[in-house]
Structures are given as structure tokens and as C-alpha cells.
Amino acid sequence: MNILKLLDKLSDDSFFTRELSRSETLTDISSLGKKAAIAALPLGLGSFMATSAKAETTKTVTDPTLMKTALTDALQLALTLEYLEDEYYRIGLLTSNLIPSSDRPVFMQISKHEAAHVVFLKSTLTSLGVTPGAKPTFDFTANGNFMPFSDYQQFLAVAQAFEDTGVRAYKGQAGNVMSNKAVLQAALQIHSVEARHASQVRRMRGQKGWIELANGGNMPAPTNPVYAGEGVTVQAGFNTATAFGPEAGSAAYDEILTGTDAAAIAALFID
Question: Which CATH superfamily is domain 3-267 in?
């Protein structure tokens, strides 16, 4: 399918926001079963994921049982990431005197988006006959490294780290789901929204809307894993730094996070 025609079909937010019955979800994601690609969501989890993030390739498995395992692993990790963001913004909005009144509408909307993603992922897992993972107990101080609910600037910095993690993780294996319309639709719709969140939070911190070479742009040291590898300037054999310099060359392309790396980042905030 022509990519422009395909992208034109990916604007229906109801894919995520409506409550789906089992039969409706199975219809919407009919290709997630026997025909599912290994990278069901572009988180690309499990032992079937490419071992090299640099190569940005994924091994394809044809065994139906292995494919379903990879699929459900991907969905479960995606759900963990969305649980993380959903609870973070809920607590932030409930904390008195944390978010300035001028900024509350932004985070109220972001919170609604994250809640919609949770509903979608739980519904999808249930439709596949899999019990969605329970929401973990989160420690948003990351063992005392942050105080996001008593310091608004820290709240913004952690929010940026979460959103940047989501952006990199969701697109990790996007190239391997091109043949699966339903999964591609889900991946692109969530990924683009997370990217908008990340850009908005950056601007609220007085940063540029894109990831900069130096640690993502004035970020605390504990968030370094979120930005590991973002200094890459060679894309498909072309050194972007040669034409544009390392800063612009790096910022022009966001690197992926493997499923393993995304899970490790989430684990920093799980009690």
C-alpha cells in the first residue's frame, strides 16, 4: 500500500478511546493472532528481538506459539510503560500546589491520553485470552533520586524522561510491522502522541522540542539511560554529522530503545 494512503487512514483516535468488547477488539486487531509479526508492537520484546539495536533489525519467527509469546510480551511491557505514565500524571494532578494553574490543562489532557492507552492495551490482551499484567507499585523517587511531587521542575524533568522513553520504545521495531495494518496503526498512533507529549514538556522546561546530543537537554544524571545512544550520527551508512555537524546530525534522527532497555528504565521506578 502506498505509505501516504496508509498514513491517511491512521487518524481515527477512537481506536484507543472507545471501550472495546472482546469481539470488537478481535475484529479491529484480527491480524494480531496467527498472522502477527514478531514485533507485534514496536517494543520488540523477548528473545525474538534483534540483539543489536544499532542494526535495527528483528528476527522473524513463524511458529504460532512463539509469535503469540512475543506478541503478549510486547503488549505487557507496553502496558507497564503506560501504567507508569498514567499513575505519574494522576498523582501530579492530585498533588496540591505542584502544577501551576496555567499548566494544569496540559497535564490533564496528557493524563487522559495515557489512560486511554491503558484501556486499549488491557482490552487487547484480554481479547487475546491473556490476563493483563497488574499495575506495579511505583516509586517515582527512583530510590531517592527524585522528588517530583514536591518540586515542579523535577516533575517536568521526570515527565520528559518518561515521554522520551515511550517514543524510543514504541518505534523500536516499527519496520517489522509494516505488513500488519492493525499493529502499525496502533504503533504509529500511540508513538506520535507520545512524541507530542515529549515535545510539549520540553518546551515547558525551556528546552528545544527535540532530543539534543548532550543528555537529552539539561536532564538529571539518573535519566542518562533514557538518552543512551542518542548521539549516533550514522544513518543507513550516511554520516549526518559530515553535512550538518554532530549536534544537528544527531538531533535529526531519534534512535530506538530495545525492549530490554525500555524495561530496565521502567524498573528504576518500580518498587
Answer: Ferritin, core subunit, four-helix bundle (1.20.1260.10)
